[in-house]
Design goal:
The chain folds into two domains: 158 residues, P-loop containing nucleotide triphosphate hydrolases (Rossmann fold), CATH 3.40.50; 61 residues. The longest helix has 16 residues. The chain has 237 residues and is α/β, with parallel strands linked by helices. The protein contains eight helices and ten strands. 43% of the residues are buried. It is globular. Adenosine-5'-diphosphate binds next to strand 2 and helix 1.
Length: 237
């Protein structure tokens, strides 16, 4: 199933062509890495997908719904972790999920909250205050919040950023588990190693363009390294 269909989207900020007519799809059950150096246009791409930014051209379809024309249905099909998570520190992990559900106009269902907390490995800290959680736990709580509405697609902007090595491993495991459960994941990163450990396929972005698309497996490691090296060089593609 095509969970996300991005077709020729473009966005310019003044003289900067942040996203330059890119197209790709993400299917149920895969973790797709959006890899590129800082300034490549990853966050803008994800913001276009989330409908936070209006495209100059092109379309985004989430589970078949156009994010511009059928916004509500489109966004209901997806969960996002794009801006850094700002869950209220005074609430408990479980209370923060109730707060997110309330903000989204959804019924607050304790059973569903327990379910998503267990899914991200936070069942034991459900009653701990958000401010007492580690950074990695806060990230996972934000993912739990994104999972509340049972999205078919999760879009995460640099979810591995700032995590320590065990945190990166835990997050990678969680993302792969979610994919195995049938969710489609689009995950950005500016670090090749992180993406290699997590994604099944990588889109390489540079200067607003998609410059390559590669499966992540032993046969393609060398190709990916060369590609990534070339796009991070001044004067690269
Ligand atoms: N709101 C904005 N206003 C002006 N320029 C922006 C804005 N957002 C992004 N840009 C520019 O667009 C380019 C791509 O940025 P971004 O999508 O954040 O890249 P990445 O996430 O890959 O680091 C950069 O040159 C950035 O400065
Ligand atoms: Mg970014």
């Amino acid at each position: 199933m095509v969970a996300l269909d991005v077709s020729r989207i473009a966005k310019r900020y003044g003289p900067v062509q942040a996203v330059d007519s890119i197209s790709f799809q993400v299917h149920a059950g895969e973790v797709v890495g959006l890899l590129g150096p800082n300034g490549a246009g990853k966050s803008t791409t994800l913001r276009l997908i989330a409908g936070l930014v209006h495209p100059d051209a092109g379309t985004v379809r989430l589970a078949g719904h156009d994010v511009q024309r059928g916004r509500q249905a489109a966004l209901a099909a997806a969960g996002f972790l794009i801006e850094s998570p700002a869950l209220p520190g005074e609430l408990t992990a479980s209370g923060a999920l109730a707060w997110v559900a309330w903000l989204g106009g959804e019924p607050v269902q304790a059973a569903r909250q327990r379910e998503v907390l267990a899914q991200v490995g936070l069942a034991e800290v459900a009653q701990r205050r958000v401010r007492q959680l580690s950074f990695g736990m806060k990230q996972r709580l934000a993912i739990a919040a994104a999972l509340l509405g049972r999205p078919s697609l999760l879009v995460l902007d640099e979810p591995l950023n700032g995590l320590d090595p065990p945190g990166v491993r835990d997050m990678g495991t969680l993302l792969r588990e979610l994919a195995q459960g049938g969710t489609a994941l689009l995950v950005s990163s500016h670090l090749l190693d992180e993406v290699e450990r997590t994604a099944s396929r990588v889109l390489v972005m540079a200067r607003g363009r998609l410059v390559a698309e590669e499966p992540v497996d032993a046969a393609h490691t060398g190709v990916l390294r060369e590609l990534f090296f070339s796009v991070t060089q001044p004067g690269g593609p």
